[in-house]
């Protein structure tokens, strides 16, 4: 006597259920955690007196696209959280909730020194009469594009900032952990809290799987 599979219709109906249910569970689980990341990042914003004094002063309005003035209150206001949208992909679930840092000064403080930890000033000083700056390397093009009156301004600026925080890879998690994930504000906060976020996502998936199995149990009847 052939076996009869009972519950296939429930499984097919459950496929649409699991998409929406998982999306909601993931969103509800990580929403407070991501908001906490944003708040923690605001706590890392230095005051105006904690950065180089010249950075918090306004520049002449006659300068074309001047270097943005630093204002801690503006930087904090530019940090926030967007709930985004979670979607299913061929490789699994893509969680789109994200924390942002949008002010120009905040972005500079966040990422300065990622590419050149010692600053963009590859010069040496050679004393020839009044002294002159020369390339460290004959192939260096830095002097060709450098307009500052202080060739070591970049190095001094980076040196006055705290080092960028480098994230650790979370076992089993997708995503980059390289230079683009290093920073002093939102990336520093994320490096400290990302394990909690990933754990919340996994728990949400587990709960949905249990619920899905309970609602769509398949039985074989002889």
Q: Could you please describe the fold and organization of this structure?
A:
The chain is α+β, with helices and mostly antiparallel strands. The chain has one domain. It has five helices and eight strands; from the N terminus they run βααββββαββααβ. The strands form four sheets. It has a two-stranded antiparallel sheet. It has a two-stranded antiparallel sheet with strand order 2-5.
Topology (elements, then pairings):
Elements: E1 4-6, H1 8-43, H2 72-77, E2 79-82, E3 87-89, E4 92-94, E5 98-101, H3 104-111, E6 123-126, E7 132-135, H4 153-159, H5 186-215, E8 219-221
Antiparallel strand pairs: 1-8, 2-5, 3-4, 6-7
Helix pairs in contact: 1-5
Task: Please name the defining characteristics of this protein.
single chain; 222 residues; alpha+beta; two-stranded antiparallel ribbon; 5 helices; elongated
Short description:
This protein has helices at 8-43, 72-77, 104-111, 153-159, 186-215, and strands at 4-6, 79-82, 87-89, 92-94, 98-101, 123-126, 132-135, 219-221. It is an alpha+beta fold and 222 residues long.
- Sequence of secondary-structure elements: EHHEEEEHEEHHE
- By secondary-structure content and strand pairing, the structural class works out as alpha+beta
Radius of gyration: 26 Å
User: Low-confidence parts lasting 5 or more residues at pLDDT below 50?
Assistant: 1-12
How many E-type strands? 8
